[in-house]
Design goal:
single chain; 1 helix; elongated
Length: about 55
């Protein structure tokens, strides 16, 4: 009965190792990240709401 728990522990440790190694595979560069030109634009001005005439 110890075999299923041993296999579960082996599978869990394998998944944890795979996740830890996979997270560290990002490319390393000395260049800064490119800036997003969308965020450089000012926000559009929203006009004040107009109350309807009665």
């Amino acid at each position: 009965m110890k075999t299923p728990s041993f296999l579960f522990a082996l599978l869990l440790s394998g998944l944890l190792m795979f996740g830890a190694v996979g997270c560290n595979d990002a490319p390393v560069t000395d260049e800064p990240a490119p800036e997003d030109p969308v965020w450089d634009e000012p926000a559009p001005e929203i006009p004040e709401p107009v109350e309807p005439e009665s």
